[in-house]
Design goal:
806 residues; mainly alpha; 11 helices; 0% strand
Length: 806
Amino acid sequence: MDDPNKSIDHVEAELQGLKDTQQLNLELSDKLKEQVMAQNVELARKLQTAMGKVESLTKDKVSLTSKLEKERNCRLQLRDQLERQKLEHHHVLEAVKQSSDVTEALRLELKTLKEANQQLTTKLQDEEELRQPPQAPTDRLLTNMKTESLTKEKGSVTTKLETGKESEALQKSTAEKLESLQKLNYELNHTIQAKKDFNSILRGEASRLSIALKTQLKMNENLSKLRQKDITKLQSEHSCRLELQNQLERQKHVHQQALEAVKQFSKDKEFLTAELRKEQTWRVQLSDQLESQNLGHRQALETVKQYSKDKEFLSAELKKEQMWRLQLSDQQWNQKLAHHQALEAVKQSNLAALHQILEALIAAKQELSSKLQVEEELRCYSQDLVDWLSTNLETETKRNECLTKEKASLTAKLEKEQIWRLQLRDQLEDQKLTHQQAHKAVKQFHDVKEALCWELETLKEANQQFTTKLQIEEELRWRSQCLTDRLLTNLKTEMKKNESLTNEKKLLTAELETEHTWRLQLIQQLEKHKNAHLKESEALQKSTAEKLESLQKLNSELNRNIRAKKDFNTILKGEASRLSVALQTQMKMNENVSKLRDKDIAKSLELQNQLERQKHVHQQALKAVKQFLKDKEFLTVELRKEQTWRLQLSDQLESQKLDLQQKALEAVKQFSDMKDGLFQELESLKEANQKLVTKLQVEEELRCNSQALTDRLFRSLKRSKRMNRKSKAVKKSTAVTDTLKLKRLEKLNSDLNHKLQVERDMSTALSEDAFRLFMALDTHGRGAEVVTGVQIGVDELQSGQLEVPS
């Protein structure tokens, strides 16, 4: 009797141990589920923080690109300002050259006036030598009465010769002047036609550029509309994502309520099964083993932070386990009944049935141990995956810290460049002030030059009046003296004039040769400038093409990122729908508890697939970080390029400052020297004119005294005077006609010059419009070659260095 009782007690103890192990397994599963939920929440939070960091980095990238574009625009504006300053400097140099030419012309005129004054002084000295006091007027009267007949004949002959020679000289001079004026008119007409053609070309190019501007503005509007559409799409996707997140949170709340209900049920069950717990030692050992396993699970599940989708799966498993727990409780009650029946049967029958029951219980225990081994293997696999993900997360955090440091360095560099840009603006303002001072100096020089020209004109008029007076006195003197002496003096003066004309011709030929050589040199310089401008335009085209390619690459990469985000959103939507379907299926699958144990392995495989999907998402994030690093390298290269360009600009500005200062000093020195020389020459001319005025007054007094004595002598010469007057009237009529013709030609020349000035103003206005169009088109990298060519043509026409085709 002792042996069956012992065997029964042993069987009951084994049954209670199995029940305790089942309860412990249920408790451990509950704890594991709670830990998994907490870890999933932490993973979702860290994923959100990582996405926020990525978005902040993208925003920083966009801000950096915008700042770079602004600095490029500033660089283009500075380049345009430098070109304008170069043009202004070129105009100032041209004005200085013109002023130097005018001063040279004034010097030549002063020299001519000096020579004329010297000739007048020599003539006055000759007249004083010839004049002698009247001695023996009676003898002279007799000799004059005798020589009257001879003088009449000689006077008629000499007058005819003089009139013929003077008429020929006047005709030659007028013909030469007419030819020169015709040539000038022909050249001016050609220049006007060339400028009109050039202005028409400029207008056509300006219209073409305006059309190109309109097209580009339309393209920009279309791009802005497309961008707004993309923004609206992104906002809608973001709202959908927020809705999905809200649904997930609601499902979490529902799952938590279900877990609380399960916990309450487990507490009730523990209260009922507390009486059956007898073998606590064995339970403690099992609990220690399970705690070690729980520690392994915790270490494995700490790094699994990005899998928020496993929450619904775990909640479904909890429901399944609840159903399984209910079934186990039913089985326990059934086993109790069977145990009581078995005890009664043992008492009544043999011990064979007890051995069979024990074998069945041992087989069930072996099955449970095999299942525990499978679960341990799955836990080891999940722990390895969690370790790998933890290492990847640490590397990503390090990269994010490096990116933040690089961002701070880039912002510091941008601040330095902004400071440098302000310094450049200050330098440009200083250069503007220097240019304005140079313009003021040139204006003062022009004013002084105009005053000197006016004084020269007044001196010329005075000299003309003196020459007329001297001519009248010479005529009276020569009438009183012998005609033979007059003829000889006339011959000598004509010889001198011929010699002076030959000298002037030689000088003119030399000047023409020098001008020809100077023009050839200018043409060569213009060709060199054109070649240099062509090279610069080609370089600009290459740089614009490279910039367009880089912008296209950036646009393609941005499109790829947007598509990746769209795919990720679609994946989220699909997973949400899948989760809803999974909830429905789990509600149905709660009815078949026996099949759920067979499908646990399939669910573990699904977990592996989800881990692989999350790996794929992590790889996409790594790719985005790599792309950001590439963009950062590209931005650093562009910053280095701009720093080199900044240094070159600073060197150019310093060299231009030095050149401008040297040229301004030289111009001021030349102006001061020329001004002093001109004032000295004017003072000398004034003194000479005063001396001539005094001499003429003395001569007039002598003439008045001599007229009283010579009235009787010249009565006989009235007829000859009448003839001379007639010849003079003829000469004056011819001279008047010639002067009228010259005045008309001068008027034509002045009109042509006025037209040229008007067309120059038009060309400058067109060039400014072309510059404005170029500033508008330069943002898109077009129109550089056309405007540079137009600018070169306008500068050549304004400077008068361009050769007009005949």
